[in-house]
Amino acid sequence: MFVLVELKDTVRIQPSSFKQKLNDVIANELNRKLANKVYKDVGLCITLHDITKIEESYIFPGDGASHTKVTFRFIVFRPWMEEILIGKIRSCSPEGVHVTLGFFEDIVIPPHKLQHPSHFDQREQVWLWKYKTDDGETHDLFMDAVEISDQVIRFRVVKEIFTEVPLPSAPNASRDMSEKPEANNVAPYILHGSIDEPGLGLLAWWQDS
To answer: Alpha carbon of 60 to those of 90, 155, 175: distances in Å?
Structure first.
């Protein structure tokens, strides 16, 4: 779920910070700039892990700040495909079941990836699985956003979608973080999940299995 990614950036340091330790100032600036930001083909940046290289600092004419190229490793949220995660139902819509991990909310389980057969109740705005028992009885198992522990949901990651940005991606080995993330009302990083197999879905469904 969390990975270490090597990145590069040029850190601008104000003259008021020149008396502080360079490593500390750079670390603070990198966390301020990148933490909780999504970058295309990188993921959701969480926090700085370490700084691996600091190059010479430069001051340009007309700018009293210093500019330092650094190479560093950042802890990034980017689950691998087929990884199983546990979250909570945030809401339901005709587009599917929306799930939150607490720190990341752009997760959707589309209708074709729910347990079969599932039905969306338009009036209640919830999804329900019409579960048939071995003796032929049918039970409606609701998937809604009630704030109880039973709404904890286990799902498999099956797809990731990054919003296209006008700037090209940096090389695979390391990425230049001077590229800005997309700034609009479209989620820059979306995960699609699946619960259409035994053991997945609400944990309460399988507690007595």
So the answer is: 49, 51, 24
**Separation of alpha carbons 170 and 168, rounded Å:** 6
DSSP string, 85-126: EEEEEEEEETTEEEEE-SS---EEE-GGGSSSSEEEETTTTE
45: three-class secondary structure by DSSP? strand
Is 41 in a helix, a strand, or coil?
coil
- DSSP letter for 58, please: E
Nearest to 151 by CA among 68, 71, 65, 86: 86
Taking the model in full, what pTM does it have?
0.81
**Measured distance CA(163)–CA(151) in Å, rounded:** 29
Token pair 């071995």 is at which residue? 134
Please provide the size of the chain in residues: 209
Closest by CA position to 16, among listed 69, 64, 67, 68 = 64
| Residue-wise pLDDT tens digits, 5-49 | 999 999 999 999 999 999 999 999 999 999 999 988 899 999 999
- CB 201, CB 118: distance < 8 Å: no
